[in-house]
Design a protein that fits this description.
Layout: E1 27-28, H1 40-50, H2 62-72, E2 79-82, H3 84-96, E3 103-106, H4 112-119, E4 124-127, E5 146-150, H5 162-170, E6 177-180, E7 201-206, E8 219-223, H6 225-238, H7 245-256, H8 258-281, E9 284-286, E10 293-298, H9 303-312, E11 315-316, E12 328-332, H10 336-353
Parallel strand pairs: 1-11, 3-4, 3-5, 5-6, 6-7
Antiparallel strand pairs: 2-8, 7-8, 9-10, 10-12
Helix pairs in contact: 1-7, 2-7, 3-4, 3-6, 8-10
């Protein structure tokens, strides 16, 4: 870093994204992207919007927000669209955390939470998951902090029920509870239904996974009108035009094409079930995922070595070199053909290790 870099960021450890290699053609099962292209309707509307790029995008995202209100059953003034769900999360750290209101989140979860806390100078506590990687709801009662929970969680793929989320909401009436639902469309149950009951609930979702728009960068948050007003104050103080016109149009097209979205989710769930079954037949321990990925380990394979052996065969998975996860690999669920290639490679690796 330069000598001009602010001292308040000197100890910041940036987020490390999953590999996006350009040198070889890989089967990418490492960053939880969809194996399917965006909806044809999304592409059509994005192409139309590209003809008007000389104009600023609508800072209110009105057309997209109105459609989301219809789809998700939330009043339009209780929805805010953002540049990916990461921006929504950062806004939440900025708006609802400070020295007197620290953050709390699990020790094994989305890696950006601790980084956003550090970036914004927010003290935080990481609460250990149980040995089976589940959340003990009682750990989050009366914590006197802003709570961030990925549900379903990553990289475990496990989720809390709405009843469990309600326990946390009731146990923290004076603090915001942020439920990050990046993977909810693959088997979870959205907490959006709870918004009318709890003024302290903020739900965040993304179009990156189930709606095949990771490259477009579109997310949104939903909550009480006052919470969304707080976040709008942050947005209009940083970047009013945070969602570009093509992404906005593509998002509208994605919401209009519900059948395409549902069909792709169904295929991923089928491929996940098939992959889980095949891995277990090969002796892997696989968590019961409700996401578009699985977390797996094998007693005879070292997690990092399995990652490297698969990479040498042109298949990328994710390995987290941390104490509780080092034995595991996280595998994104791709197309049936991709998962067949993955299982074939794993079989080959196992045969070679005997």
């Amino acid at each position: 870093m330069s000598r001009f870099f602010s001292g308040k960021y000197r100890d910041l450890v940036p987020y490390v994204p999953g590999e996006q290699p350009k040198d070889l053609k890989y089967i990418k099962l490492n960053t939880n992207e969809s194996p399917f292209p965006p909806s044809p309707r999304a592409l059509e509307l994005a192409a139309q919007a590209a003809k008007r790029l000389q104009l600023y995008s609508d800072p209110t995202c009105k057309v997209l927000t109105d459609k989301a209100s219809e789809v998700f059953g939330v009043p339009a003034d209780q929805i805010l669209f953002t540049n990916g769900s990461d921006e929504a999360l950062n806004f939440a750290f900025m708006a609802f955390c400070d020295q007197s209101r620290p953050a709390v989140f699990p020790d094994i979860t989305y890696g950006f939470y601790s980084i956003f806390a550090d970036l914004n100078g927010v003290p935080y506590t990481q609460i250990p998951l149980k040995e089976d990687f589940t959340i003990d709801v009682s750990d989050y009662i009366g914590v006197n902090a802003t709570i961030f929970i990925a549900n379903p969680n990553a990289p475990s793929g496990l989720n809390l029920s709405l009843d469990q989320i309600e326990v946390i909401l009731k146990g923290n009436p004076d603090n915001v509870v942020v439920i990050d639902e990046a993977y909810v469309d693959f088997g979870g149950e959205s907490a959006i239904a709870l918004i009318p009951k709890y003024e302290n609930l903020l739900v965040i979702q993304t179009f990156s996974k189930s709606r095949s728009m990771a490259g477009a960068r579109l997310g949104f948050c939903a909550g009480g009108k006052a919470l969304i007003g707080d976040l709008n104050a942050i947005k209009f103080s940083t970047n009013p035009y945070n969602v570009n016109a093509m992404t906005m149009a593509a998002g509208l097209g994605a919401l209009e094409d519900e059948e395409y979205f549902r069909d792709n989710c169904r295929k991923i769930l089928q491929n996940r079930a098939w992959t889980t079954e095949k891995l277990r037949e090969l002796g892997f321990t696989v968590a019961d995922s409700t996401t578009n990925f699985v977390l797996a380990k094998h007693d005879k394979l070292v997690g990092k070595q399995l990652y490297l052996d698969l990479k040498a065969r042109g298949i990328l998975v994710r390995h987290f070199d941390t104490p509780r996860l080092t034995d595991y690999v996280r595998v994104t669920i791709g197309s049936k053909e991709e998962m067949e290639s993955f299982i074939a490679a794993v079989k080959n690796i196992l045969e070679e290790s005997v």
